[in-house]
Amino acid sequence: MLKVTGLTKIFGGLKAVDDASLEVAEGRIVALIGPNGAGKTTLFACIAGFQSINAGRVEFSGNDITARPVHEIARQGMVRTFQITQPFAKLTVHENIAVGAYQEYIDRDEAWEHARRIADQVGMGQILDQPAADLTVAGRKRLELARTLATGPKLLLLDEVMAGLNPSEIIDIIDIIQKIRASGVTVLLIEHVMQAVMSLSEHIYVLSYGKIIANGAPHEVVNDPAVIEAYLGRGAAEQMAKEANHA
User: Fold this and answer.
1) pLDDT value of position 66
2) Structure letter (DSSP) for residue 184
3) CB 29 within 8 A of CB 39
4) Which residues of the chain have pLDDT under 70?
5) Residue 82 and which of 125, 163, 238, 247 are 20 to 30 A apart at CA?
6) pLDDT tens sequence across 134-170
């Protein structure tokens, strides 16, 4: 469904993303992980059209979408969430979700009803009339999910939707994402919560200093020496192996 080839993004003299390639097959949940500052959000922004790229190619459903405007990419079915949620604070939950629904439905009543269904899907059906400004962090995360789902995506790019949540809230979001995939939406997610990464993803890509340094099944990636050192520093993998042997 998504194929990124040799994507490079340069800011001044810094290669924020360096020749990165990845693929996401339809119907899967794929994770993109890496240390802070690795370039994950920049890569997301480039894929979704929010940032121009210096080199590379992005294909979605067999179409070259490189350098296409964000609204065109969204209409084709690829949408993203943001780390920092920014709902329309003066609007209700229902109105916020309906904003996304208008991409799918021209008729107001149809958009309104679609927004109601999406709210139920993410567990917000009981607070439709609540102002977005009054939501908790977890509530804003759900609303961000709902607004993107309301556009009718085929591929959803989730940027740290679990950041700042407590353990029970994380479990709730994991369940929602699993249901989203079950409804037919493919998911590519950036996440630091490894519980979520291991529970959800079928394939993981690891980004470090802008480069993809590993990819594979979750159990393979978390035991990869290059990945361990990217997170814990040089020599960490060797030290961990020594400790395991002496245990």
Assistant:
1) 95
2) T
3) no
4) 232, 234-247
5) 125
6) 999 999 999 999 999 999 999 999 999 998 899 999 9
Q: Is 49 left (phi over 0), alpha (psi -120 to 50) or beta?
A: left
Domains in the chain (CATH in brackets) are 2-84+156-246 (3.40.50.300)
Beta strands 211-216 and 203-208, pairing class: antiparallel
pLDDT in tens, 121-131: 999 999 999 99
Dihedrals phi, psi of 72, to nearest 5 degrees: -70, -40
- Helix, strand or coil, per DSSP, at residue 88: coil
User: How many angstroms separate the CA atoms of 199 and 151, rounded?
Assistant: 26
Sheet holding 14-24, edge to edge: 14-24, 2-11, 55-60, 63-64
pLDDT at 241: 58
- Can you tell me the distance from the alpha carbon of 80 to that of 71, in angstroms, rounded to the nearest whole number? 12
User: Which two tokens mark 176?
Assistant: 């929602």
Q: Compute the residue count for the chain.
A: 247
Q: Which secondary structure element, helix H or strand E, spans residue 186, and what is its range? A: strand 186-190
Residue 247, token pair as written in the block = 């245990």
Burial class (CB in 10 A: 0-12, 13-18, 19+), 23: middle
- CA-angle at 28, arms to 186 and 122, nearest 5°: 50
